[in-house]
Amino acid sequence: MTHPFAELDTALTELRAAHLARRRVIVEGVAGAHYRVDGRSLLAFCSNDYLGLAQHPALIEAAREGAARHGVGAGASPLVSGHSAAHEALEAELAAFVGLPRALYFGSGYVANIGLIPALVGRGDAVFSDALNHACLIDGVRLSRAEPHIYPHGDLAALEAQLAASPGRRKLVVTDAVFSMDGDVAPLPEMLRLCERFNAWLMIDDAHGFGVLGPDGRGTAAHFGIDSPRLIYMATLGKAAGSAGAFVAADPTMVEWLLQRARSYIFATATPAMVAETLRASLRVIASEGWRRERLQALVARLRAGTVDLPWSHPESATAIQPLIIGANEAALAAMQGLRERGLWVPAIRPPTVPDGTARLRISLSAAHTEADVDRLVTALHEIA
Questions:
Q1: Where are the alpha helices (DSSP H) in the chain?
Q2: Which residue of 78, 126, 172, 350 pairs with 83 in a disulfide if CB–CB is 3.0 to 4.6 A?
Q3: What end-to-end distance do the CA atoms of the chain give, in Å?
Q4: Coil, helix or strand for 183?
Q5: Is the Cβ–Cβ distance between 204 and 235 less than 8 Å?
Q6: Which helix (H) or strand (E) holds 203?
Q7: What is the CB-side half-sphere exposure of residue 381 using CA atoms within 13 A?
């Protein structure tokens, strides 16, 4: 009799042979950019905590006070009894922070996107997605059952042609604002002009721009100075904001529709109110401690100056995401291991997260890093190269 998991066991063996198998590590302690991993202290360049807020005293204190006041669980979905005064205040403050009329808070960016897109478009509609969009946008497109149109990365001419040819009843363009594996920024002003021309909505996922780009860290839309009723702005709060969750901000009618129709909002237990209180503190820190963004930009420049003579491609990126494209999966893993042996934690990113042949080291910089940290990384990269 065939073992019930024989096919899966064979597939796992094939993953390992192709150097595509993943494994988890246990992180036991964090001190700034230094992590204790499997019992060893490592200088980490793998976290999306871009402003170093996850350990900020103001956020920790807000979490403690929030837990004492509200407890540590929400108990039900937001539309039953899980929506607290803290959630209500957070949504108002998020909307004000990004300069849009109304906001809706979700438990995570993935949960938000797989709920937003199917709530906006369905059968008979059309959705247009950048070829390098994050998996949560891709999955949201698939779940929507709208007609999908995938345009080459950043190709405005291709997007224009697709919009012009589409007979879709509703048209939705979805894009990362800052692309998570390359660190480049989408041409949002030009995309918005296309949406206005072809009667489409523009939904942007600003997971890696919120808190980092724009005046006071108000995000990529503010960075470009764009504003339109057609704009649907989504950002996560577990990266630069240092805590957890995500939100969408848009026209009040749009947000009300999402509240009524986004299944991942309606049928999920609400995030604890203590998290909402933590995020309210985070918004205040993001706005007031501009030195964190200044340090981050200085570190980006320092890293890029140190990598110009490495044998690997270092695509243009002014954001905290700095990829070094190595190519082969095995070579990327060897580079990661070489850095690990030197006390540095930089993840090797392989397919299907990135296209075949573009395995890379994904360096994530943070305001928690120092110039000495970056210099240590640059030295180690030259040694293993």
A1: 6-17, 57-70, 85-98, 109-120, 135-144, 156-165, 188-197, 220-224, 252-261, 263-266, 273-288, 291-306, 329-341, 371-384
A2: 78
A3: 50
A4: coil
A5: no
A6: strand 201-205
A7: 30
- 370 vs 355: CA distance, rounded Å: 32
Q: What is the pLDDT of residues 107-143, one digit of tens each?
A: 999 999 999 999 999 999 999 999 999 999 999 999 9
What CATH code is assigned to 57-288?
Answer: 3.40.640.10
CA–CA gap between residue 292 and residue 294 (Å, rounded): 5
Residues labelled as active-site residues: 180, 208, 239
Buried b (16+ CB within 10 A) or exposed e, 248-262: bbbbeebbeebbeeb
Measured CA to CA, the distance from residue 71 to residue 275 in angstroms comes to 11
Give dist(CA 143, CA 163) in Å, integer: 21
Preceding amide of 352 cis, omega within 30: yes
Instruction: Point out which residues pair with 348 in neighbouring strands.
Output: 361
What is residue 106's three-state secondary structure? strand
What is the signed CA dihedral for 56, 57, 58, 59, rounded to 10 degrees?
60
| pTM listed for this prediction | 0.94
Say if CB 84 and CB 277 are below 8 A apart: no
Backbone angles phi, psi at 161, to 5 degrees: -65, -40
> What secondary structure, in 3-state letters, does 62-81 show?
HHHHHHHHHCCCCCCCHHHH
Q: Residue 38: pLDDT above 90?
A: no
Domain ranges of the chain: 24-51+290-384, 57-288
Q: Using one digit for the tens of pLDDT, what is the confidence trace for 276-298?
A: 999 999 999 999 999 999 999 99
Residue 104's Cβ-side half-sphere holds a number of Cα atoms within 13 Å equal to 26
